[in-house]
Write a structure and sequence with these properties.
Layout (H helix, E strand, L loop, with lengths): L1 H22 L6 E6 L10 E4 L2 H4 L4 E6 L17 E4 L5 E6 L3 E7 L3 E3 L13 E4 L4
Antiparallel strand pairs: 1-3, 2-3, 2-4, 4-7, 5-6, 5-8
The structure holds calcium ion.
Length: 134
């Protein structure tokens, strides 16, 4: 009896792990939603908000990603971000030009900024590097 119960819970745990792999925590991804607020940003993703204060007051575009993106124009998000939430444990470098050029800002792991800056300003982010080597 005990042995059977143990085996059954192992199967459940295995299923949950497989489901989380498929749904993508940890998998490379980028996606766009409409929303607002810090809580709109899922765990393990960096979220760029179209407007300052995390789109406060009105749903607007949010680009959510854990990818390195050389040109945010590919996601129709070039020169768009006005605030961000880094809901990952790693730093992300934000650049004012495509291909990791121009001015740089460091978005620390588990940090947020209601207004872009100080180095890459409002509507300036054009590329981003996730998991930079220290
Ligand atoms: Ca903007």
């Amino acid at each position: 009896m005990r042995n059977g119960a143990f085996r059954r819970s192992s199967v459940v745990i295995g299923f949950v792990m497989a489901a989380s792999l498929i749904s993508g925590t940890g998998a490379a991804q980028a996606d766009e939603i409409e929303g607002q607020g810090v809580e709109a940003c899922p765990e393990d993703l960096l979220c760029l908000y179209e407007n300052s204060n995390f789109n406060s007051g009105k749903d607007a575009r949010i680009l959510m990603t854990n990818l390195t993106i050389a040109d945010l124009g590919d996601w129709n998000f070039d020169d768009t971000a006005s605030s961000y939430v880094n809901n990952t444990e790693s730093s992300v470098i934000l650049y004012s030009e495509p291909d990791f050029k121009g001015k740089e800002d460091l978005a620390w792991g588990a940090s947020q900024r209601a207004q872009m800056g100080p180095f890459v300003g409002d509507n300036e982010v054009s590329s981003l590097l996730t998991n930079p080597a220290d």
